[in-house]
Amino acid sequence: MDPNSVKSTLSNLAFGNVMAAAARDYQKEILAHEKGQTSTSVNEEVDLDELMDDPELEKMHADRIAALKKEVEKRESLKKQGHGEYREITEGDFLSEVTGSEKVICHFYHREFYRCKIMDKHLKSLAPRYVDTKFIKLDAEKYTKMRCEMKFLLLE
């Protein structure tokens, strides 16, 4: 038996298998395409005018519009309270800022700490995305020094 003829026969068999697999895939594609056309033709048979006059659909539409309007009003009122931005507050404003909102994130930062700068960057990018949460920061070093000086004065 000639090695080249065996090689040629095996090659032809492999090519035949590949061709048969390609033919099966093509047949599956055609069947899927035909199924897609029949399903779209069934969908086309639905009367669109009938759907437009559906009272349940109109009610659902009106309810959704009302819910969206309510959500927009809520977002606007939260923005008036300082939500949607990352800002620095003073120690005197802390209690009113924190108790005035349901969700608050306060970053007690130190100007010279590298990790605080990283946190600032991330909180600044998060604040506009999460309007229902108030993002504030407070200079911890400044107010710690002030408190220490006040305690020292009280002790004298």
From TrEMBL:
<protein>
    <recommendedName>
        <fullName>Thioredoxin domain-containing protein</fullName>
    </recommendedName>
</protein>
<dbReference type="InterPro" id="IPR036249">
    <property type="entry name" value="Thioredoxin-like_sf"/>
</dbReference>
